[in-house]
Design brief:
The chain is 27% helix and 25% strand. It is α+β, with helices and mostly antiparallel strands. The chain folds into two domains: 40 residues, no CATH class; 98 residues, no CATH class. A four-stranded antiparallel beta sheet has the order 2-1-3-4. The protein starts with 17 loop residues before the first helix and ends in a 15-residue tail after the last strand.
Length: 167
């Protein structure tokens, strides 16, 4: 029996077997080799993964509210109440929603604009695609395309989208 405060010497049975240690060291060396040399051979990776595969374009859905004159105004979620801070994430899968779900999202956005004193006649959702570049350490987005996709949360008397002026 060992007195309290004195450490026991490890016995041969307490150690990890030599084959386990050799395997672990070999695996770590292989991971380091493939990572530093950016080689992609399953199950090893060069750590490039998603960041290099994405490319320099990005796209997303953006909501605009239509005023009484038919002009479009981009919905600025930062100006809406705090409850709308996560609303842009609802638009990420907007095309997968049912018509009723899309209408619900648009109704909520229109209600937020009304609380801010605006009078939206409808909410238009556009798909916008950008080229993303880094200039002097800042991300710069150049719009490549803007396509009208949906009109929803339409007020009575609104007669539909036309060639509206975007602000």
């Amino acid at each position: 029996m060992t007195p309290p405060g004195v450490l026991e010497r490890p016995t041969k049975q307490d150690r990890v077997p030599v084959t386990g240690r050799v395997f672990a060291i070999g695996l770590l060396c292989a991971l380091a080799y493939f990572g530093w040399n950016t080689l992609e051979r399953w199950p090893f990776t060069g750590w490039r993964l998603y960041s290099n595969m994405k490319g320099n374009t990005a796209g997303s859905y953006f909501p605009f509210w239509v005023d009484g004159d038919g002009d479009l105004h981009r919905v600025d979620f930062a100006d809406l109440p705090d409850a709308y801070s996560r609303a842009p994430y609802l638009l990420e899968k907007f095309d997968r929603y049912s018509d009723a779900q899309r209408e619900g999202v648009c109704d909520a956005i229109a209600e937020g604009e009304r609380r801010e004193g605006n009078q939206p006649q409808a909410i238009h959702v556009y798909w916008e695609r950008y080229r993303v570049r880094v200039i002097d350490g800042q991300r710069v987005k150049d719009r490549i395309e803007r396509d009208f996709r949906w009109s929803c949360a339409e007020a009575s008397g609104y007669d539909g989208p036309d060639d509206a002026v975007v602000e």
